[in-house]
Amino acid sequence: MPEKTVTIASRSGLHARPAKIFVQAAAKQGVPVRLRVGDKPSVPATSMLGVLALGAEQGTAVTLQAEGPGAEEALDALAELLARDLDAEDPNA
Amino acid sequence: MADVVRGLGVSPGRAAGQAHRMARPPVLPPRGTVTDPAREIGLAVAALAAVAGHLEQHAAKAAGADARAILEAQSLMAADPALRESVEEAVGAGLTAAHAVDAACAHHREALLAAGGYFADRAGDLDDIRNRAVAAVLGLPMPGVPDPGHPYILIADDLAPADTAGLDTGTVLALVTEKGGPTSHTAILARTFGMPAIVACPGAAGIGDGTWITVDGASGEVAIGVGEDTAAAVQSEARAARESRSAGRGPGRTADGHPVPLLLNIGSARDLGTGDAEGVGLFRTEFLFLGRGDAPSFDEQVAAYTAVLQALPGRRVVIRTLDAGSDKPLPFLGLPEEANPALGVRGLRTARNRPEVLDTQLDAIAEAARASDAETWVMAPMVSTVAEAAGFARRARARGLRHVGVMVEVPAAALHARRLLAEVDFLSIGTNDLGQYAFAADRQHGELADLLDPWQPGLLGLIAMCGEAGREAGKPVGVCGEAAADPLLATVLVGLGVGSLSMAAPSVPGVREALGRHSMQECREHARLALAAGDPAEARAAMTGAGH
């Protein structure tokens, strides 16, 4: 299954606003995407509770996985989000 | 004729208005049998969807990007497909809708708690979702702060910080709780906003929503079912009292003119308000450090300190160095988890492992001080020995900082106040922690609230030792803590030798007024009576006898 590993850049980790932005973006992808930390069980990227329970802080490496048509594009789009410091961006922009 | 019920008045003032109750969390009904699983799932899913919608609406109205993000994230939790799956599983296992919501939330709660840190803090958001969704399934009123659309008096079992985060202090006229004590969150909140409040009033349980009541926060009396005339009279009296208080201006002083600077407790320049403050008695610098993976840079810190110092030219600004610990964890400090955080590596003690964090902070404070006309004071939190005070003073003075002090939060520091003042220029008493450590009572422990009452004569005795040491040394001793915001207790503190009081901005007018009504001689008499009292209730009662 295609995977992509990326380091969380947001200051507050995958929490609060960054988590919200990520979960909403995951829901817009054409394919189901899952997310995991290390070799722990993965969670659906559209699950706010699952994403929070990963406990991914700034600097944590997380792995995105998806399968099927459009999987690569979905992985690229979501990986790009996680690699940005979403806390530093203007919330009103 | 109105019925009168009594409680403990914890924040003086009178108010009249309609009572509205904060609904309690719903109680689960006995477990029933599921006859139609699809119906139970439908009920539970509809309730969760309603909660998600409600939270989304609140998010849209929220002031500030942070508050909005938290509510939006919470709304996404309620709408989480994983939560829905857990509900379906629970119904499959034989639970009715309300129990299925409860079980599903409990399942995900565990996972959040296991993630630790600020992820675990979100468990409270999930509890809120659970309470709201269970109430929706059962057709009970939505728990949380009511929103009747007009000013009202809030009645509650008790209030927790989470309950009051969204409280509109412009709409709530007064607070009445069935439980709670003089240092409960309700009392603190009410005093901070100068709002009349009564706690420990079991009779409030019988007050129906929409009933007209009057509240007297000094005597602790609630009159239920008052007539229009009475209500109107109390309202106009309350308005006049508010206006007279807010008309009070100028520096704090006793009736006979002894100056007692009334300073502000702030977390950033935003808390300074209208800017007529006499100064800042406690500038908490934690906000710069919280929730980040690395320490803020020197430049970033200089900018934040400068913003405060430049707003107060010629006035005193007491900056407290980083007060963190495993109870307020900062990832970059790399502090290990501790069994007993309140007694662990916190405050100045964090400089044992990471001295460079304190050094950078002192460098930044010194740099900001050089570039402003404010009188910059700096102090360290959680100092317990003379050697710690001396070490901190050396580091601060080496950077050119001229007013160096320490906080007195540990009984050992109060006992050695005289020796501390041989090393530093001032003391600032943090009464909340000093109470916690002197009485071995956790600040968060609701059942021990009586031990944490700032009127405890034992606590006042420790404050008296500091005041005495300050008088002897001719050096300032201030109080920055809950105690300073209590107008009557402020007179006691001044009588004990405390020279300045620091509090949240809304508390200043009440304290200014109370001091202005008492001479220094009367303050000393208050102090003598409070120290001699057997317990906090007796101490408060003695003030009334003293002609307060």
TrEMBL record, chain A:
Lineage: Bacteria, Bacillati, Actinomycetota, Actinomycetes, Streptosporangiales
Range of residues in the leader sequence: none
InterPro entries xrefs: HPr, HPr-like, HPr-like_sf
Chief localisation class: cytoplasm
UniProt-listed CDD domains: PTS-HPr_like
Keyword Cytoplasm: yes
Localisation per UniProt entry: Cytoplasm
Name under which the protein is recorded: HPr family phosphocarrier protein
UniProtKB/TrEMBL annotation, chain B:
Subcellular location: Cytoplasm
Record's keyword terms, sorted: Cytoplasm, Kinase, Magnesium, Metal-binding, Phosphotransferase system, Sugar transport, Transferase, Transport
First-listed, main subcellular location of the protein, grouped into a coarse class: cytoplasm
Keyword Transferase: yes
Domain Phosphotransferase system enzyme I N-terminal: 6-122
Residue span of region Disordered: 11-32, 237-260
Residue span(s) of domain PEP-utilising enzyme mobile: 151-220
Alphabetical list of SUPFAM superfamilies matching this protein: Enzyme I of the PEP:sugar phosphotransferase system HPr-binding (sub)domain (SSF47831), Phosphoenolpyruvate/pyruvate domain (SSF51621), Phosphohistidine domain (SSF52009)
Matching InterPro entries: PEP-util_enz_mobile_dom (IPR008279), PEP-utilizing_PTS_enzyme (IPR050499), PEP_util_AS (IPR018274), PEP_util_C (IPR000121), PEP_util_CS (IPR023151), Phosphohistidine_dom_sf (IPR036637), PTS_EI (IPR024692), PTS_EI-like (IPR006318)
Swiss-Prot/TrEMBL catalytic activity: L-histidyl-[protein] + phosphoenolpyruvate = N(pros)-phospho-L-histidyl-[protein] + pyruvate
Residues of the PEP-utilising enzyme C-terminal domain: 247-516
Chain segments annotated as coiled-coil in the UniProt record: none
Cofactor requirements of the protein: Mg(2+)
EC annotation from Swiss-Prot or TrEMBL: 2.7.3.9
PANTHER family according to UniProt: PHOSPHOENOLPYRUVATE-PROTEIN PHOSPHOTRANSFERASE (PTHR46244:SF3)
Family of this protein: Belongs to the PEP-utilizing enzyme family.
General function of this protein: General (non sugar-specific) component of the phosphoenolpyruvate-dependent sugar phosphotransferase system (sugar PTS). This major carbohydrate active-transport system catalyzes the phosphorylation of incoming sugar substrates concomitantly with their translocation across the cell membrane. Enzyme I transfers the phosphoryl group from phosphoenolpyruvate (PEP) to the phosphoryl carrier protein (HPr).
Name this protein carries in UniProt: Phosphoenolpyruvate-protein phosphotransferase
Species of origin: Sphaerisporangium corydalis
